[in-house]
Write a structure and sequence with these properties.
The protein is α/β, with parallel strands linked by helices and about 425 residues long. About 40% of the residues lie in helices and about 20% in strands. The protein has four domains: about 120 residues, OB fold (Dihydrolipoamide Acetyltransferase, E2P) (Beta Barrel), CATH 2.40.50.140; about 140 residues, Response regulator (Rossmann fold, 3-Layer(aba) Sandwich); about 45 residues; about 40 residues, no CATH class. The protein is built from eleven helices and 15 strands. The longest helix has about 45 residues.
Length: about 425
């Protein structure tokens, strides 16, 4: 029988895979949920993952990161959902009107009874084999580290010369030359001609990169061409060109096609530009910007010079304050000498007076101990014949001769008698 659910009309009767539970006994009814679940099961078992071709429309991205869109052709359309993890794996940008092929599972969104496709992968329409080849080569070179960010070099801020690798007849060359002339006509531009399309173009482009490397005339190289189909741009997806880009000792900027066009050369380049014009802008410093920077540097230099002069004037003023005329300095020394002389004279007089006073005290003390002074008070000193001072009568015998010294003169005597 035919079952119609929303926009879905599906022949399900007599199909061997239809769930037994959906075949109710005669006269019995099933719930809407049971019916839709049975239809979903039939769809998912009947149609495995398959590629569906159509045009993107009604594209919207939810805050969750999931993507919702409609896939249509001239006579039909179907709702699609692509979950966030699958969206992240899509190369390039999704846009309305793009012809694509999606690998999807046909299913039914039960809450609304709506037929839809759950998209697992997406690629440009009609380019399946080439796109698969692109992905395989990209994965291979990425595993080798050919696209590692750490290996990419910075572009020179002020290149002495810029090289352009492209076809002489390419519109991209005119765009690049116009942009370089507008931004900085003082930078020499060297064109290394090579075909950018057709069999063998990748090898010719790689050879021209090697030539530019050998001649070492430029500080940066632009590998550019205009937009086109995947087949037109395919030479920039060749392995030989990617390896030549990484082997080139000169930084390489790749600007191929439009912003949404991605090639293997873009991943291998030191910098990827969305267009040839953008590549020229990346590689060349703007003359106006340089002039502005020079003017700013001049202002900074003038400001620093003024500040330096101000500091120098302040140091000069400080030094001038410390600088004294020799006559004034000599007068100050003379004044200091006079002060020191006065202090010395005062000190000497003070010390002399102190010494004199001390001497007087010592003389007085000495005078008090002078034997002659004792004799003046009526005392005398007696010596025996040997000259020893007599302190006891026991030291003499009768008949000994003695000498007695008085304050005035001396007396010699003989011992007649002694007593204790």
């Amino acid at each position: 029988m035919w079952i119609s659910v929303g926009s879905l009309t599906l022949l399900t009767a007599m199909h061997d895979d239809f769930p037994a539970r959906s075949v109710a006994a005669a006269g019995a009814a099933v719930t809407v949920s049971e019916l839709l679940r049975s239809v979903r099961d039939v769809l998912e078992r009947r149609f495995a993952l398959l590629w569906v071709r159509g045009e993107l429309s009604n594209l919207s991205k939810a805050p969750s990161g999931h993507c919702y869109f409609t896939l249509k052709d001239d006579s039909a359309q179907v709702d699609c959902i692509m979950f966030r993890s699958r969206v992240a794996a899509v190369e390039g940008e999704l846009r309305n009107g793009a012809k694509v092929e999606v690998r999807a599972l046909a299913t039914l969104y039960e809450p609304r009874g709506r037929f839809q496709l759950t998209v697992e992968a997406l690629r440009p329409a009609g380019l399946g084999p080439l796109y698969e080849r692109f992905l395989r080569l990209k994965e291979k070179l990425a595993k080798e580290g050919l696209f590692d960010e750490a290996a990419k070099r910075d572009l020179p801020p002020h290149p002495r010369a810029i090289g352009v690798v492209t076809s002489r007849a390419a519109a991209a060359l005119r765009d690049v030359l116009t942009t370089l002339a507008r931004r900085n006509p003082a930078i020499p531009v060297i064109v290394y001609p090579a075909p950018v399309q057709g069999p063998g173009a990748a090898e010719r482009l790689a050879a021209m990169l090697r030539t530019a490397s050998r001649r070492a005339e430029c500080d940066v190289l632009l590998l550019v061409r205009g937009g086109g189909s995947l087949e037109d741009l395919w030479q920039f997806n060749e392995e030989v060109l990617a390896r030549a880009i990484r082997a080139c000792p000169i930084p390489v900027v790749v600007g191929v096609g439009h912003e949404t066009d991605l090639t293997i050369a873009d991943f291998a380049a030191d910098r990827r530009a969305p267009t040839p014009t953008a590549a020229a802008e990346l590689a060349s410093p703007s003359r106006a910007e340089l002039a502005g920077r020079v003017a700013e540097c001049a202002r900074c230099l003038a400001r620093e010079m003024r500040r330096g002069l101000q500091y120098a004037f302040q140091r000069l003023d400080g030094t001038a304050k410390r600088l004294v005329h020799p006559r004034e300095r000599l007068a100050s020394y003379q004044q200091l000498l006079l002060q020191l002389s006065a202090r010395l004279a005062y000190g000497f007089a003070h010390e002399l007076h102190a010494c004199e006073a001390k001497l007087a005290r010592l003389q007085a003390a000495l005078a008090g101990m002078d034997p002659a002074a004792v004799l003046q008070r009526g005392y005398s000193i007696t010596y025996d014949s040997a000259g020893n001072v007599l302190r006891s009568s026991a030291a003499v015998q009768s008949g000994d001769r003695l000498n007695t010294i008085l304050a005035l003169g001396r007396i010699e005597s003989e011992v007649k008698k002694r007593s204790q």
